[in-house]
Automatic annotation (TrEMBL):
It comes from Arabidopsis thaliana (Mouse-ear cress). It comes from the Eukaryota. The lineage of its organism: Eukaryota, Viridiplantae, Streptophyta, Embryophyta, Tracheophyta. This is (thale cress) hypothetical protein. One of its GO terms (molecular function) is metal ion binding. Gene3D superfamilies: B-lactam Antibiotic, Isopenicillin N Synthase, Chain.
């Protein structure tokens, strides 16, 4: 399914064809003949080409993209007003990750539109697509703009196909008999998030399943790639004012295989958001697509006529359209946020972190507003501008990789043992040191990761009977050398960073910066889990099952080149947390939910490492005092009396909560040396 072409797609000025498009004798015009020759060469060698001189103004093309950007910039809740539902005929908004190509999630969101038709017109096959297109109320006039654009694209596609029909040796109207008396169309309005991680697949490799495609893409971002006969991916560099045109599977069949549909994909390596509006011109919905007799006669040496089975276009479309599930209903333990987590530069907060009047600073106020929105809508956010060097963050992961690469026997030197300070508690062995793969349980199911577990050290007897199971020194490996010193420095930095973020969150909740630093955080506890997730060839192996964090605040330092962490949104959908180099992913836990009187929710998340490569993640968990009796703080009960959650929050002693969670997590803590 690849064709032979040079590293740049051909550019074809079709204005001579348009000037004669309604002239039955157009084939005799010298200008048309030249265009037809270029179309033939492009369709044989490439399957893709740029179209200029098409008669649609640059201003209109640009306005379509600008207003599309405006839609995708709306809050997630606003976009969900036109979400796809079973009753909406596969029409409307779909979030990031809903679309699948070759079984893998695509990193784009979209509005899907189809030609509207009367109920029952296309029988049982057409039922799933019945219904009107869903257009947003904002931006205003978007519907009118796009409906005009669709008419122009329909006319342009028909005229290009007349030229292609001539190129194949037929009349201009070969396709306009039984195949195109009542042509169907599809339009996908697509948004690709900007990313800092290279090679995130916005849309996986595929051919288009229809007849002819017109692509209107942003001028300043190269993301579309086309595969040539050598297997190389050639970038389709945007040319302002042009369309990229490509042929689809149905045209391959109709032409008797003379023209081949070509594999292409989208990889948006830009940090900027990218928009693409793709218009797909199709045959009649009920058309039985097979090689046209004239092309079988003119191209008898093509063997594809024997293997190209008759295809009913509508059935083919429905089968392809089932590449994404319908958005599910709202469910518990999920929060409402955009399809990408917010990114917050906290540097203004860090600069003023020891200033009692920090709330009066404009920069701090801006950060606090972002923290409030993120904690209310997501419970998760990226933190940048945190003051910890990217080199240091990376070194932590590099040395953690080195540890997990050691032979199993070497790692077992720091396994959890009685000498390491664990106690037998309700037949469970606890808790510091190396744990093998499969030892950790989430909701009773084994997690596919190994880990080193560390906790704040404290004197024997300090926390009474509950604390006994946590007594003992952390175990650090001798190899890699200096790992202990590196990680202890890292822990100090994470403690300071967590405290500063919590000061911002306290302000966001309407308190002073120090509301949490009274009886709750005079002697804060902490946990660190150094996690290793094996690379897998089987998709959707659960590295860590769905859970909320049981503490106060978490800082996640994850590998830059593997997306595995997923967060659950209000609709019950799992949103991938794409790594941003140098950032931390921060999320709130169960204790902060209680302290805030339920204003901020802890959010379900999980880890699925679909990469064949090993993944490392270092999770730092900042907690209350071990013996803190956690309940909604009075100031937040006063400020948020309408939440009503204070009645259902029982007082929780953090240490008891922690030990109970660990009992559940490590039910099968039995080492096999």
């Amino acid at each position: 399914m690849v064709t032979d072409f040079k590293s740049l797609l051909p550019v074809i000025d079709i204005s001579p064809l348009l000037a004669k498009c309604d002239d039955f004798d157009m084939a005799e015009d010298a200008g048309v003949v030249e265009v037809v020759g270029k179309l033939d060469r492009a369709c044989r060698d490439v399957g893709f080409f740029y179209v200029i001189g098409h008669g649609i103004s640059d201003d209109l093309i640009n306005k379509v993209k600008e207003m599309t950007h405006q839609f995708f910039e709306l809050p997630y809740e606003e976009k969900l007003k036109i979400k796809i539902t079973p009753t909406a005929g596969y029409r409307g908004y779909q979030r990031i990750g809903v679309n699948f190509t070759s079984g893998k999630q695509d990193m784009h969101e979209a509005i899907d539109c189809y030609r509207e038709f009367k109920q029952g017109k296309h029988g049982d096959i057409g039922k799933v697509l019945e219904g009107p297109n869903q257009w947003p109320g904002n931006p205003q006039e978007y519907k009118d703009l796009m409906e005009e654009y669709i008419k122009l694209c329909t006319d342009l596609s028909r005229n290009i196909l007349r030229g292609i029909s001539l190129a194949l040796g037929g009349s201009p109207y070969e396709f306009e008999g039984k195949m195109l008396r009542d042509p169907f169309w599809v339009m996908r309005i697509i948004g690709y998030p900007g990313v800092n991680q290279e090679n995130v697949i916005g849309c996986g490799a595929h051919t288009d399943y229809g007849l002819l495609t017109l692509i209107n893409q942003d001028d300043d971002k190269t993301a579309l790639q086309v595969k040539n006969v050598d297997g190389d991916w050639i970038p389709a560099i945007p040319i302002p004012g042009s369309f990229i045109c490509n042929i689809g599977d149905m045209l391959t069949i109709l032409s008797n295989g003379v023209y081949q549909s070509t594999l292409h994909k989208v990889i948006n390596n830009s940090p900027k958001y990218r928009v693409c509006v793709a218009f797909f011109y199709e045959t009649n919905f009920e058309a039985e697509v097979e090689p046209l007799d004239i092309f079988k006669e003119k191209h008898p040496r093509k063997e594809t006529s024997q293997v190209a089975k008759r295809v009913v276009y509508g059935q083919h479309l429905i089968n392809k359209s089932k590449s994404f599930p319908v958005i599910v209903q709202v469910s518990e333990m999920a929060t409402n946020f955009k399809s990408l987590l917010p990114v917050i530069d906290i540097s203004p907060l860090v600069v003023k972190c020891d200033d009692a009047n920090m709330a009066e600073d404009a920069g701090v106020a801006e950060v606090v507003g972002k923290l409030d929105r993120a904690c209310r809508d997501a419970g998760f956010f990226y933190v940048i501008g945190h003051g910890i060097s990217e080199d240091f963050i990376r070194k932590v992961r590099v040395m953690s990789h080195q540890f997990f690469e050691l032979p199993y026997e070497e790692k077992l030197k720091i396994k959890i043992t009685p000498a390491a300070g664990y106690r037998l508690f309700m037949d469970v062995e606890l808790y510091r040191g190396y744990q093998r793969i499969g030892l950790n349980l989430t909701n009773g199911k084994q997690d596919m990761h190994e880990a080193i577990d560390c906790y704040k050290e404290f004197k024997q007897g300090k926390h009474g009977d509950i604390g006994k199971v946590m007594e003992g020194a952390n175990q650090w490996p001798e190899n890699p050398q200096e790992y202990k010193e590196l990680m202890e420095e890292y822990i100090k930095l994470c403690i300071d960073l967590s405290r500063n973020i919590l000061r911002g969150i306290s302000l966001a909740l309407g308190g002073s910066p120090y509301e949490f630093e009274g009886k709750m955080l005079t002697d804060p506890f902490w946990i660190m889990r150094i996690l290793g997730y094996p690379g897998v060839n089987q998709e959707n192996v659960i590295g860590c099952g769905a859970h909320t964090d049981y503490g106060l605040l978490s800082l996640i330092n994850q590998d830059d080149d593997k997306t595995a962490l997923q967060v659950r949104d209000l609709a019950g959908d799992w949103i991938p947390v794409i790594p941003i180099p140098g950032s931390f992913v921060c999320n709130i836990g169960d204790m902060l939910k209680i302290l805030s009187n339920g204003v901020y929710e802890s959010t379900l998340h999980r880890v699925i490492n679909n990469s064949p490569r090993y993944r490392v993640c270092v999770g730092f968990f900042y907690e209350t005092n071990f013996d803190a009796a956690v309940e909604p703080l009075d100031i937040f009960k006063e400020k948020y009396p309408g939440k009503g959650t204070s009645q259902v929050f029982k007082r929780v002693v953090y240490g008891e909560h922690l030990v109970h969670k660990l009992q559940t997590t490590f039910q099968n803590l039995v080492e096999h040396s």
